[in-house]
Amino acid sequence: MAKKLYHGAAYYPELWPEAIIEEDIKFMLEAGINVVRMGEFAWSTLEKEEGSIDLSFFVNVIKRLNEHGIETVMCTPTPTPPIWLTHDHPERMHVNQEGHVMVHGSRQHICTNNPVFREKAAIITEEIAKAIGNLQGVIAWQLDNEFKCHVNECFCDTCKTLWHQWLEERYGTIDVLNEAWGTDIWSQYYQRFGQIPQPKAAPFLHNSSLTTMYQIFSYEKIAEFADEQAEIIRHYSNAPITHNSTTFFHVDNERLFENLDFASFDTYAEKSNFASYLFNCDLWRNLKVGKDFWVMETSPSHAASLASHSASHPNGYLKAEAVASYALGGEAFCYWLWRQQRTGCEQPHGSVLSAWGKPTVGFENVKEVEVARKEIESMILSTRPLQAEVAITYSDIARAFFKTEPHRELVYRDLMIKFYENILSNGYHRDLITENASLQGYKLLFTPFLPNVSTTYLERAKRFVEEGGVWVIGPLTGGRTEHHTIHRDAGLGELEEFAGIETLFTYPMDGTESVGEFLGIEAPLSLWSAIFEPKDANVVGSIKEGISTGKAFITEQRRGKGKIVMLGSLPVGEEGDKLLSTLINHYAEEANVRSHTDVSQGTIVAPREKNGELVWVVVNMDGNGGTVTLQMNGVDGITGEPIPKGPIEIGAFQYRIIHFRG
Q1: Where are the beta strands (DSSP E) in 253-299?
Q2: Mean per-residue pLDDT for 47-75?
Q3: Which residues does the UniProt record annotate as the domain Glycoside hydrolase family 42 N-terminal (predicted)?
Q4: Are residues 443 and 508 in the same domain?
């Protein structure tokens, strides 16, 4: 990709007559759109009849766009297989957990593991890559669209066969599986792999191992489909390849992006949930380390379908989103969608142009984004996001565990975003990292809500601690094996010896009126909690009220040059936030975390650097304005005027660029 900041939109020229395409290009130039994404839903346009593929329409559109300086991300059209591929073929369709067979007419209605689908998908992908791969203006590829957004695991017969093969490859023998899953319970013992069911609807709950492993199997199979498409494209094109994912689709993003070239995500967070938007930026920045991410879809005003809609963005918020994403490591900020769809199920969705060709309520905000993009582009291109010193581990495998074992409808993503908000609101520059990520350069590591701590993760974290890092573990971390069973020898497995504790018992704190205290702050405790007996560790947080009064819920233990901290329960409410903030700040100080500001809540500082020069991008996200204190004199990155050290103000949805030299 050319080195620039991209400002784009999803475009569907196949839905409109020739004259409207010309009109669209004129408006794109006015709005500052320099890249479009297209083709992901156009299979029936490209191949109306089986075997009759014609790419000329998209070739011509790409050339016309390129003549006007608008580049293209080309997509594979596999989320919407045409009717000739599905009609009278129920065996090819996605089957849900209740055994219902999906029908044609929406998207993601086919089983992506079906061999006929895979064959036809490979053919259309290859033909597109041949015709378009070397066209000037094609700068990237997107595979499919939002894998597993509308469906989760498929339960068809094809998947059943693949499931049995996958289990045999994973476990080797049926005896190993039976032992790992503990199948003697409820007479679930299996004699051969072919007997193991898919976790379809049952009278009560399935074995936890069965349910979680089926999700992981599904994760792997959709990633294999992505790998297959990427391999085909690479025969004909050198342009980098991505997929537009997010954190609530039924995929393992770490595995999905393993063999792709850069990461991109879709987000429709409302202004009131801006922390979720930032969460995505901080995660996708680290899915492909060293590669800029793309915001592939966000609404210029509001998200909507025939069934629902979100709140519209206030004026100015779109600009704040865009500047924040560029500052946090984004290369592109793109809208869904360019021109409002006049048919289908997403007719009410926000767009840049209306179906009748007039600017929408979001149009002027899109133009504001373009002004900001031009203003910050040279600074963004000449700097890189500063290495964070605080890391939080994110895991889609953990999300599968929580789907199997949600307790009182706990949602992993919601738990993580709330925990993340506590770190964000305290002014720390932070990374969300995957389970297999390097811990190099971090000083403080948080591992919340990770039911299984793998051996490889534990070994990396041990080294991190022994070399001087502070590792805060929990809550709801370490209590399950990789097979989603409970440990035999200790409540939290191998963690306990390293942490110098013994888990006395675990139970749900909610409803027990339990109160914990840490450094003089008391707060109610919640969730399924672990109560500790110190062995080598010191008790730093104890229970003051409830059924375990006097016992420990926070311990710390020095190991090597660093420290391991166990957090056995989640403090909640206003006092809980205060206790967590106290814990975060206390251990950040112990770890000597320097990338920290006193920025007010609702405003962020995104630090960037080049050759030792520090640049702050300060953005107000909540529309209330904000403040931050400069610890040294700076220079305004836009006006060039000096800014004396001390507090500065940021207006509602405004941003400031501050350079610090020497």
Answers
A1: 264-266, 293-297
A2: 98
A3: 11-375
A4: yes
pLDDT tens digits, residue range 324-337? 999 999 999 999 99
Question: Both 581 and 482 in a single domain?
Answer: yes
**The pLDDT of residue 1 is above 70:** no
**Structure confidence at residue 662 (pLDDT):** 65
Same domain, 499 and 608: no
Q: Is 590 a catalytic residue?
A: no
CATH of the domain at 476: 3.40.50.880
Kindly report the backbone phi and psi dihedral angles of residue 628, in degrees, each rounded to the nearest multiple of 5, phi listed first.
-155, 150
582-603 per-position pLDDT tens digit: 999 999 999 999 999 999 999 9
How far is it, in rounded angstroms, from Cα 376 to Cα 320? 12
Residues comprising the binding site?
Answer: 107, 111, 145, 154, 156, 159
Q: Are residues 556 and 609 in the same domain?
A: no
Distance of alpha carbon 578 from alpha carbon 445, whole angstroms: 20
Choice among 47, 297, 370, 421 that is catalytic: 297
Burial 262-300 (b: 16+ CB within 10 A, else e): bbbbbbbbbbeebbbbbbbbbbbbbbbeebbbbbbbbbb
Residue 629 maps to which CATH number?
2.60.40.1180
Domains held by the chain: number = 2
Domain that holds residue 422: 390-590
Judge whether 546 and 525 are in contact, CB under 8 Å: yes
Q: Is the pLDDT of residue 458 over 50?
A: yes
* Residues placed in the known binding site for substrate: 107, 145
Look-up: residue for tokens 């072919």? 194
Q: Is the peptide bond before 534 cis (omega within 30 degrees of 0)?
A: no
Same domain, 516 and 626: no
Q: Which of 209, 281, 159, 274 is nearest to 606 (CA)?
A: 281
Q: Are residues 500 and 621 in the same domain?
A: no
348 belongs to a structural domain: no
pLDDT band at 440 (very low <50, low <70, confident <90, very high): very high
Return the pLDDT at 541.
98
Catalytic residue (one of 40, 47, 71, 146) = 146
**146 labelled catalytic:** yes
177: three-class secondary structure by DSSP: helix
Question: Do 487 and 576 sit in the same domain of this protein?
Answer: yes
Query: What pTM value is reported for the model?
Result: 0.97
